[in-house]
Design a protein that fits this description.
The structure holds two protein chains of two kinds. Chain A is α+β, with helices and mostly antiparallel strands. Chain A has 15 helices and 14 strands. Chain A folds into three domains: 277 residues, no CATH class; 103 residues, no CATH class; 60 residues, Arc Repressor Mutant, subunit A (Orthogonal Bundle), CATH 1.10.10. In chain A, α7 runs antiparallel to α8. Chain A is elongated, with a radius of gyration of 30 Å. Chain B has a domain of 246 residues: Amidase signature (AS) domain (Amidase signature (AS) enzymes, Alpha-Beta Complex), CATH 3.90.1300. Classes of the chains: A alpha+beta, B alpha/beta. Bound molecules: zinc ion.
């Protein structure tokens, strides 16, 4: 049941943590790598050993600026704070994070349908380690002991906080999908929700349209776009049910359980930590000079929204219509093929329907253009063109070779013309009848061509050729 | 040469030891053995050390001697024994901060200063006692027991670097390193009758110094002479990429200017630090020091640093606030003490309850409170504004003068137990030293005579940021004047 159908409006604010694709961690020289043996990518700094000190990774600042610029934020001089709370996977028992002076503020993200979601801030912080509870089904309360892996401790994160502008689970999914596309496009993060390099928390509340915001709950543990959508829908409905029963929504943090499809209380507002933020005395303020900001901006690749607009303009489609192709990163291929002379609509159609496989982006644009040209010229049927494309991605061979090897080359326009002429010569009665206006006689001729070509001729092309011949034939029409 | 209190003194200043070892006239092995003997003779009585690294020291000395024999120059501190405050990380050697919570912890790395000392040829003879996590002014708040003042063993050596001050004063090592967060080098230096320097904040890398209050902590040397203090500072100072707050300046040139005198330098005696609460004999020594500088050609005047009077209050909010965060990591999860309990949170509490002493707990609570939601602005925020005022007042003073002069401590060394029952009276013993930590400016204590009972009195030379050269020139003049 959708929230709006019941006269309620869902309000969603999303906080997204993304791990930056730096070579090293935020404050030390340890590798920032996923999947290493536990506690191998560690040093005194990221283990928070007594006496160790953080040194800011310049590359992380650069990527954070890139994110800010891609989200149309103002990049500002910023400082780091300490966020103090005890947690075993946090080596110093405080997290170095940005608080009231973040590096990026006041931006927006535009969804493919044109709506804008405000970005309040996008700030730098360090990641924590990872705790595994052993025994008791992996739950902390029943576990016999816990193991902590600090490989992730100190990995650079940017937390992107959106304004509460989102009004549905679908829009929330679209927002995260678009944000992920941006992060990948600008090389800031590999943004994989399943691996945890993109983590989403959703603040969900409901209200009657036009009324002030309701009490919100923060939902955590959203590991896929699917859980994000399901969790928001469940949580909104839970709150609506409470309110319709005359009960109040209690502000709290809730945990999404994928297996039972429900959110569960994690901690209430009263149990919330007092983080005792104060400026991190071990670091100096970050003030990226304007020159550096300009350099970063100059190197910013085109963003998905711009790429959609451009591809739509070139192919005569709409931004929403080309969204999938841009998401697959195939817009460059289509544009290059078009530049090499390919029919824009055909090229776009192939990219959208026939190039979902791995490696499609490495296709040679000239070869792709040649394939489209062969198809348009009728040398290949749509089905054949698709088969040739698959082989091209797999082998990298030119389309002509593949078509020939597969026996498609006989269907070049000359071959087809020859086959049609042979059919006319072989069945003069049918031909005369057809020329006399008997459209049914055409079937016999097409059938002959098909038989002669073992079914590989394009029916439409054969018909077109027959019509061409008839129009050119002397005698009664 | 005689040491403080007329007892058998050090076996020669560091620069002489290094010169002899470099020339092959003395072996480092022999030097180290002499000092280890001196330690053996009196350590039981004084308890300057938490650990004595005799074996490692002998090995290091032997290696140095082989290098000298091979024609190598081990550096400006060749063969010089050094004592390190036990809050400086030493690879493979226990670093406890005189706390039960770090008992037995052996760091996997050396502090930058330790690396630099080793690279200059110095030989570590041991790790010295301190008030737990450097919180205290008497070295009585140590989990390993108090250190005694070599001058008068009924009295405290000061603190928190009391072990290092006592070690140098007792001739256990010609030089030592301490850390100074609110006077923790200068105050014990004054109490024990040695030279103690707190450099400009950022002059010396803090990498490997176990943090107490990160924005105030600074490592510095103890020595028997101003020249030796200069020598050590030259070795340990200079930019370190591992410390973001380290200044992008090379080490200052100090030895070269040591004999330049003070003719023409303008020196201001800080009015606010000569008033109430400062013993008459200390005021007298400070005025005598002013006269000595005047006699040497300095232009001496009295100046006012009004906000300095609020330094103590600001300090006791800022330092505990930072400490409450810095000491959070001692939670029993990764290293040091762990007291097992039913849950992680209970284990954290049990470990910290057992592992920390009362003074540390007191400051963690103070600092936690000062940073709490709703209190931040009234306490931590306000203290930071006072800090800004102090810097402004110092800056104003340094527009009129090149150096400032003040007592190091309001009194001479006090007796054991005198102040442990009343934390506030203990805190007051740092009133003269704290302003320099809040401003980040350099300051050093130089022995300048004795008070009642033959107890040493130190005077403090203060300088603007990175003004160590002029500060050492004045210190050298004072040292010469008191000979
Ligand atoms: Zn590391």
């Amino acid at each position: 049941m959708s929230a709006t159908a019941t006269g309620w409006e869902t309000v969603v604010g999303l906080e997204v943590h993304c791990e930056l694709a730096t070579a090293t961690k935020l404050f030390c020289a340890c590798p920032n790598a996923f999947g290493a043996e536990p506690n191998t990518n560690v040093c005194p700094v990221c283990l928070g050993l007594p006496g160790s000190l953080p040194v800011l990774n310049e590359r992380a600042v650069e990527l954070a600026m890139r994110i800010g610029q891609a989200l149309h934020c103002t990049v500002k001089p910023s400082i780091f704070h300490r966020k103090n709370y005890f947690y075993p996977d946090m080596p110093k028992d405080y997290q170095i994070s940005q608080y009231d002076e973040p590096i990026n503020v006041d931006g927006y993200l535009e969804l493919p349908d044109g709506t804008r979601v405000g970005i309040e801030r996008a700030h730098l912080e360090e990641d924590t380690g990872k705790t595994t509870h052993v025994g008791g089904g992996g739950r902390i309360h029943e576990a016999t002991y816990s193991l902590v892996d600090y490989n992730r401790a100190g990995v650079p994160l940017v937390e992107i906080v959106a304004a509460p502008d989102i009004r549905s689970a679908d829009a929330a999914r679209a927002y995260v999908a678009e944000l992920r596309a941006i992060l990948v496009a600008i090389g800031a993060s590999d943004a994989r929700m399943e691996e945890g390099s993109l983590r989403v928390d959703a603040n969900v509340s409901v209200r009657r349209p036009g009324e002030p915001f309701g009490t919100r709950c923060e939902v955590k543990n959203l590991n896929s776009l699917r859980s994000l959508g399901r969790a928001i829908e469940f949580e909104a409905q839970r709150q609506i049910t409470l309110l319709e029963r005359g009960e109040a929504v209690v502000q709290q943090t809730r945990h999404w359980d994928e297996s039972d499809g429900r959110t569960h209380t994690l901690r209430s507002k009263e149990e919330a930590y007092d983080y005792r933020y104060f400026p991190e005395p071990d670091l100096v303020p970050v003030a990226p000079p304007g020159e550096w900001q300009d350099q970063v901006r100059a190197l910013l690749p085109p963003l998905p929204a711009d790429r959609r607009a451009h591809l739509a303009a070139v192919t005569g489609s709409t931004p929403a219509g080309v969204a999938l192709v841009v998401e697959r990163g195939l817009d460059g291929l289509v544009l290059a093929a078009v530049a090499a002379g390919a029919d824009p609509e055909r090229a776009l159609t192939h990219a959208e329907h026939n190039l979902s496989m791995e490696g499609a982006d490495r296709l040679d644009p000239a070869a792709f253009a040649r394939l489209v040209a062969m198809e348009v010229a009728g040398e290949l049927t749509a089905t054949q063109a698709k088969a040739v494309l698959v082989d091209m991605v797999e082998t990298g061979d030119p389309p002509d070779d593949i078509a020939r090897a597969r026996g498609f080359e006989a269907m070049g326009s000359d071959a087809l013309t020859a086959a049609v002429d042979e059919a006319i010569a072989a069945d003069p009665d049918a031909w005369a009848s057809y020329c006399g206006g008997n459209e049914k006689a055409k079937g016999a001729l097409v059938g002959r061509v098909m038989k002669a070509t073992r079914g590989q001729a394009d029916g439409k092309a054969v018909t077109a050729l027959l019509e061409e011949r008839r129009a050119a034939a002397p005698g009664p029409a | 040469m005689t040491g403080a209190g007329g007892r058998p003194g050090p076996r020669g200043p560091a620069h002489e030891i290094a010169a002899a070892v470099r020339r092959g006239e003395r072996t480092a092995a022999l030097v180290v053995d002499e000092y280890l003997e001196a330690i053996a003779a009196r350590e039981e009585e004084l308890h300057a050390f938490n650990v004595i690294t005799a074996e490692r020291a002998r090995e290091a000395a032997a290696l140095l001697d082989r290098r000298v024999a091979a024609g190598d120059d081990p550096g400006p501190l060749a063969g010089v024994p050094v004592a390190l405050k036990d809050n400086l990380c030493t690879r493979g050697v226990p670093t406890t901060c005189s706390s039960r919570i770090l008992a037995g912890w052996k760091p996997p790395y050396d502090a930058t200063v330790v690396e630099r000392l080793a690279a200059a040829g110095a030989v570590v003879v041991g790790k010295t006692n301190l008030d737990e996590f450097a919180m205290g002014s008497s070295t009585e708040h140590s989990a390993t027991g108090p250190t005694r003042n070599p001058v008068d063993t009924e009295r405290v050596p000061g603190g928190s670097s009391g072990g290092s001050a006592a070690a140098v004063a007792a001739g256990f090592a010609p030089i030592a390193l301490g850390s100074d967060t609110g006077g923790s080098i200068r105050q014990p230096a004054a109490f024990c009758g040695v030279v103690g320097v707190k450099p400009t904040y950022g002059r010396v890398s803090r990498y490997g110094l176990v943090a107490f209050a990160s924005s105030l902590d600074q490592i510095g040397p103890f020595a028997t002479t101003v020249a030796d203090a200069a020598l050590v500072l030259e070795v340990i100072a200079g930019h370190d990429p591992l410390d973001s707050t380290s200044v992008a300046e090379p080490a200052p040139d100090l030895l070269r200017v040591l004999d330049d005198g003070v003719a023409g330098l303008r020196v201001g005696v800080v009015r606010e630090l000569l008033g109430e609460g400062v013993d008459a004999e200390v005021v007298e020594r400070t005025r005598a020091a002013a006269e000595a500088l005047d006699a040497a050609g300095a232009v001496v005047d009295e100046v006012s640093v009004p906000a300095a009077a609020y330094g103590l209050s600001a300090y006791y909010l800022i330092a505990p606030a930072e400490a409450s965060s810095n000491l959070a990591r001692y939670d029993g999860v990764r290293y040091g003490l762990r007291v097992d309990a039913a849950s992680t949170a209970e284990m954290n509490v049990a470990t910290r309850t057992e592992g920390f002493g009362d003074e540390v707990k007191r400051r963690i609570m103070l600092g936690t409170y000062a940073l709490s939601a709703g209190y931040y602005d009234a306490y931590y925020g306000k203290a930071q504004r006072v800090r800004t005022l102090i810097i402004r007042d110092f800056d104003a003073a340094y527009e009129r003068v090149d150096l400032l002069l003040a007592p190091t401590t309001p009194t001479t060394a006090f007796r054991f137990g005198d102040k442990t029952g009343d934390p506030l009276s203990m805190y007051l013993s740092d009133v003269c030293t704290i302003p320099s930590n809040l401003s980040g400016h350099p300051a050093m204590s130089v022995p300048f005579g004795f008070g009642a009972g033959g107890l040493p009195i130190g005077v403090q030379v203060l300088a603007p940021a990175l003004g160590e050269a002029a500060m050492f020139r004045a210190a050298a003049v004072l040292e010469e004047a008191i000979k």
